Amino acid sequence: MSYCILVRHGESQWNLENRFTGWVDIPLSPKGEQEAHDAGEKLKSYSFDTAFTSKLQRAINTLKIIFQVTGQKGIPTEYDSALNERHYGALQGLNKKETAQRFGEEQVHIWRRSYDVPPPKDKTELNPEGISESLKDTAARTLPYWNKKIFPEILNGKNVIVVAHGNSLRSIVMQLDNLTKEQVLDLNIPTGKPLLYMFDNAGKIREHRYL
């Protein structure tokens, strides 16, 4: 038996300000730091062989705080942009309420919660390359990384922690829980709340729950 703990980073400063964050490298808010600390408290009885996180500081620092609280040092950690948050295109940096007033609540809901409709790709100061991702696009980079890098560690009996973002984790949970693209629309992963998956030696899930 082995386990994998999935943790969405603690609240970021832009979560607090109700702004679309995406790939913008925003730090944790004080509440987010506390959420990371609380996650660490819940994980004191768990030990990890390896860790994975994104290249964004809100996830990296959440993992760092967790390890500070649990007292685990020297855990091999891999940082990869495959685990980054979904890119919100031209919406990055915009206030969500103001965006809904500008484009209409229904349209913004489609951009935020649909499976395969990306936000506008207009080039902006925070998105000079004109990138934009739907959840489907996010899964297209996150799941190959999970399948190639993370899941083999679990199959080898290693205990793993993954600290990432709402949408990169949603794509992983979608695969683990065999959710349809309709079902995943209602999936919301809260900040700083560890999600445990227990696997048998064949890699089949035997238990999963929030801690």
Descriptive account of the structure:
It is built from seven helices and six strands; from the N terminus they run βααβαβαααβαββ. The protein is α/β, with parallel strands linked by helices and 211 residues long. It has a single domain, classed as 3-Layer(aba) Sandwich (Rossmann fold). A six-stranded mixed beta sheet has the order 3-2-4-1-5-6. β5 and β6 form a beta hairpin. The mean pLDDT is 96.
Record keyword descriptors for this entry.
211 residues; alpha/beta; Rossmann fold; six-stranded mixed β-sheet; 7 helices; 6 strands
What sequence of helices (H) and strands (E) makes up the elements?
EHHEHEHHHEHEE
Question: Which structural class fits the helix and strand makeup?
Answer: alpha/beta
The name of the CATH architecture is: 3-Layer(aba) Sandwich
CATH superfamily: Phosphoglycerate mutase-like
**Main sheet overview:** 6 strands, mixed
Question: What is the CA-based Rg, rounded?
Answer: 17 Å
Mean of residue pLDDT?
96
CATH topology: Rossmann fold
Assign the CATH class.
Alpha Beta
Topology:
Layout: E1 2-8, H1 13-16, H2 30-42, E2 50-53, H3 57-70, E3 77-79, H4 96-103, H5 105-113, H6 135-155, E4 160-164, H7 166-176, E5 195-199, E6 205-210
Helix pairs in contact: 2-3, 4-5, 6-7
Brief characterization of the structure:
The chain has 211 residues and is an alpha/beta fold.
